[in-house]
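Good morning C.,

I know you're traveling, so I'll keep this short. The sequence:
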Amino acid sequence: MDRFLIYNGKIVEKGEPDLFLFFTDDTLKITRKIWYGFGGIPLFNENIDLLVKQIDMLQLPVPASLKDKRELFRITKRMLNKNRLYRSGFVFFQLLWNKNGFNFLVTSQPSSTFEFPLSPRGVLLNHSGIKKYSANKFNRFPFFNESTWKAALAQNRGTFFQNTILFNEKKSICECVAANIFLFKKSELITPGLSAGSFEDTLRQIVIDIAKDLGFKVSESDEITPEDISHVDELFIASEEAGIQWVLGVENKRFVHEHSVTIHEKLNTLLREKVKN
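The tokens, ready to paste straight into the viewer:
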């Protein structure tokens, strides 16, 4: 059981800090959910770099605890060990600014699997009516997209769709809710470019690099339309939080399930190697 958390750089027992005091009406919150497994936290540095990017974009001072990644990694691993979380799961970073000052919390959540998550069943997607504006400089960051994602998922309540595809003002595909989307058409992997309005997850570039290593042609496009989906062979969505999720269907169109499994296998190999190094 996760009895311990990190509060402003120190490991404490749950209940010591009064967490309700941190969440006031004026709280600005930036979060990251980071996967741990294979005896380490393989994408730790990449996640901290993305956190710093967001903070810089908001013109906030970077907390001292994020500047020393080695020490932050050490104390995060120590927290996992104290919680006896040795298998896999997530560490959840929360950075909070409000009138009371700055607070930094790190909590943990165990998982029942050993490897990086892969959905055992395909997910069904539909098209969201909510649009994103492609030129907004904050599109890359989850904190900016959270309200949009919540609204998009709310529209799926009572349906059999598990996620939804978001478009920009040009009717081009951006992403799914909290996940990047990848399309296979024969020997080509296609994904929306960041300039289409997509958010930036740690896995996005990693998946692109793996596909190139496997010999696929890779295209980042700002002009993927709903009509294009009907001409591809396979889709999957990916995020560090949800793992690799292959897409069974979009609306009434159904797809095969082949290359996403290979991508997942190569991803696990890469994450194991990162832990060793």
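Safe travels,
E.
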